[in-house]
Task: structure prediction
Amino acid sequence: MIILTCSKFVKNTPFLKGVSSFFFILLVCVVSPAQGRMLPENTQVHGFVSQGFILTSKNRFFGDSENGTFRFSEFGINTSVQFTPDLQLSAQALSRQAGTGDKGEIHLDFGMLDYKWISNEKGEFGVRLGRIKNPLGFYNDTRDVAFTRPSIFLPQSIYFDRTRNLALSADGASLYSEYRTHFGNYFYELEIGYPDVNDRETVVALIGSTNGSLQHEISYITRFLFEKGGGRFRLGLSGALLNIKFKSGTSPFSEGKIRFRPMILSLQYNAERWSLTSEYALRYFKYRNVDGINDFSKKGESFYLQGTYRIVPQVEALLRYDLLFQDRNDRNGDQFASTPAFSGIPAHTRFAKDITLGLLWDITHAWMTRIEYHYVEGTAWLPVLDNMDPSSTHRYWNMLAILLSYRF
Amino acid sequence: MKRCCVVIVFIVFVVSIVIPTVWAQDVVVHPTVKKEDISRNALRAIFGMRLRKWSNGLPITVFVLRDDSPVHIEFSKTILHMFPYQLRRAWDRQVFSGTGQSPFVVNSLEEMRTKVASTPGAIGYSPREGVDDNLNVLKVR
Result:
């Protein structure tokens, strides 16, 4: 509650926006050494600070990356209190700066009460109430924490930063369960709540420059996971039904609907030295009466295959191939580009093929650094707010990114 | 030359017998935990910080050594049949999504034994020869 009030206060006070990063660093400095000494036994405080540098050959990714940009940083601090083994309260404040879309305001990332009705050796069943991270794919729940990602940027085909807030968290309730057997463990989670549809990048990605506003409606997110050998083999199937209401800015009585239904299949194998991960997603969009667009639907498709190899325990190399198609029935974008209504928008804005090479070094337990190189064809996941004129984007481009991260 | 080879073979032989006993580890718990054995899967849920209480309702407090400690690596691999990085990932996922907490990290085996012996409901691990009467040993089924 305090964090929520603080974040609203900061949002409404322009001066404080710039101070937010400083505030976090200060908090980190104060809390970090205090941890374990001053805190009560069942309370934990954790956090992270990341600073990135991005250089692109063409196109802009998180600010003026063609000349090199430092406008990519993430700070977070969380606390959790376990009142009893069955009752936990936790909250995380997060600030993220990423080019034009994210300005670094502090917001409540999650804040929830978690109660387990059943908890024993066979499994568990419980409920979470509040702002909950959406359980989508392998990485969505902790996507802003560099230490939990396999690379500086998550595979953009599935975890694209364009509509990130929409997929990030929802305000509502979730039921979760785990069933443990000799064969493996089964996890199931169902969340019902309201997603965030009002951040600018999401609005632009969904309705472009259309005059109107979006309102959230009740939405559903669900994930099934199977883990064998304590997570050596992992299989996941997750999906969401996100409902959004469109209110026209030109005709006040006109209301439309956007339905977004992503479905993700996830697979992972973890060996001592290497891990292999792959996810495949189908993304269904349906527009009804959105500024004259009636009964328009499209099916997007995403896929990546990723291998990591731990050369020594502290150093890990990554190789990934990542594919995104905005419209499964028009993968190369030719149909789109030849439609008169979209004249001037190049076909390469409809897909992206990204080969990524990366290297991670855990300098100490708390410090981590990463470097990665992307060779990309297509611009389907380029942030719109950083590239307002799609006709001036380039089909082939490279990106180099460096990240330094601290955690406690 | 021949003698040298014999000596090397002998040393390797002795070391290979001694090492497993040096590294043989036990899961240790505070005497309030009235249990004799536990399944490997339940143990993974405990060290994965998902199972938080014993069947009698007593809260579980988990103690581990640092990720790069040889004893921790050996414990993860031979007792849990997991790699330390998998445990780390599981803890991070829970801590940064608000669904769980991370275990207490101790700096030495001495500290591990003292903490487990003095915290009701505590669980940890230790090489076999360091285990005394202040600790209960849990057999892994």
About this structure: The beta strands of chain B are 25-29, 37-38, 61-64, 104-105, 122-127, 136-140.
